[in-house]
């Protein structure tokens, strides 16, 4: 595992102190719920620094995980050197997840933590939840509390987490967030495998056109694209619309507002029109 780099706004002295403080929080034989995103990557790196071969990172795969996420997680785990395990979860078997109420993430995380606890009884589970997560709607944290999951980064800001990832030279340091594909579906619209696959196809197609930060919001027959640079997207509107329609939507549109994480958390819940 690389030592912190010197070329960073976060001073090496502060970084060393922060890393030492975080390492002291890691219990013996930890199991990290490891998506390969920047938060869980930092937790996995810290767990490995603290406990070496006794630390384990576990990545869950299911229809709600976007294409390429598993391969990315494997690359990060290999870079860190931590033992890595892959499990399959079945949140779609949970009625609460399929119903897609505002507490959908509770059922998703319950499935994840139930699976990890069953595979590794008696071991402490760790998540990548950070300080910024406490300011958003996160029902998954309730599931974590029910499973005694620990959050080593809970008082570390997202900016600090990314800086730590850069200092540790993690491949995921600048990786955009990639939450469950169901987060693109408005609350109240049932989640099913075909819809998740359609969203994934649409996002992969738009990403290939040069938009790494995006969401395709599923509005029934309409795919509504959000990107961080709407002007750039609108300049390529014919190609983007064609790509989204090719993925299975009848219509497509580009939201003129810049991408905002969690936008569906603040928009009124409404079922999407049937396809």
Written overview of the protein:
- The chain is an alpha/beta fold and 275 residues long.
- The chain has two domains: 12-167, 3-Layer(aba) Sandwich (Rossmann fold); 181-266, Alpha-Beta Plaits (2-Layer Sandwich).
- The protein is 40% helix and 12% strand.
- It has helices at residues 12-23, 38-51, 69-80, 95-99, 104-119, 140-146, 158-167, 193-207, 230-235, 237-246, 263-266; strands at residues 31-33, 56-61, 83-88, 125-126, 214-219, 222-227, 251-254.
- It has a four-stranded parallel β-sheet with strand order 3-2-1-4, sandwiched between helices. Strands 5-6-7 form a three-stranded mixed β-sheet.
- Helix 2 (38-51) links the parallel strand 1 (31-33) and strand 2 (56-61).
- The longest helix has 16 residues, at 104-119.
- The radius of gyration is 19 Å and the shape is globular.
- It starts with 11 loop residues before the first helix and ends in a 9-residue tail after the last helix.
Which architecture name of the largest domain does CATH use?
A: 3-Layer(aba) Sandwich
CATH superfamily of the largest domain: HUPs
N-C termini distance: 49 Å
Structural class determined from secondary elements: alpha/beta
The best one-word shape is: globular
Low-confidence runs: 269-275
Features:
alpha/beta; Rossmann fold; Alpha-Beta Plaits; 2 domains
């Amino acid at each position: 595992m690389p030592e912190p780099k010197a070329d960073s706004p976060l001073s090496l002295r502060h970084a060393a102190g922060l890393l030492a403080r975080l390492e002291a929080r890691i219990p013996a034989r930890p199991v990290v719920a490891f998506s390969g995103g920047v938060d869980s990557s930092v937790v996995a790196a810290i767990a490995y620094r603290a406990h070496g071969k006794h630390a384990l990172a576990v990545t869950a795969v299911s229809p709600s995980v976007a294409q390429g996420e598993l391969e990315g997680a494997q690359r990060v785990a290999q870079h860190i050197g931590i033992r890595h395990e892959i499990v399959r979860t079945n949140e779609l078997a949970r009625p609460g997840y399929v119903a897609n109420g505002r507490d959908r993430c509770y059922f998703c995380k319950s499935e994840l933590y139930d699976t990890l606890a069953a595979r590794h009884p008696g071991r402490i589970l760790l998540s990548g939840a950070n300080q910024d997560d406490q300011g958003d709607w996160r029902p998954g944290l309730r599931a974590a509390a029910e499973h005694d999951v620990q959050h080593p980064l809970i008082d570390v800001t997202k900016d600090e987490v990314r800086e730590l990832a850069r200092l540790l030279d993690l491949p995921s340091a600048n990786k955009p967030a990639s939450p469950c594909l169901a987060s693109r579906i408005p609350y109240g619209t049932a989640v099913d495998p075909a819809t998740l696959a359609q969203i994934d196809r649409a996002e992969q197609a738009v990403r290939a056109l040069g938009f790494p930060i995006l969401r395709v919001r599923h509005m029934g027959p309409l795919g509504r694209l959000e990107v961080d640079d709407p002007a750039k997207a609108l300049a390529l509107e014919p190609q983007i619309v064609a790509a989204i329609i090719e993925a299975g939507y009848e219509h497509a549109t580009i939201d003129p507002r810049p991408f905002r994480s969690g936008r569906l958390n603040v928009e009124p819940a409404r079922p999407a029109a049937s396809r």
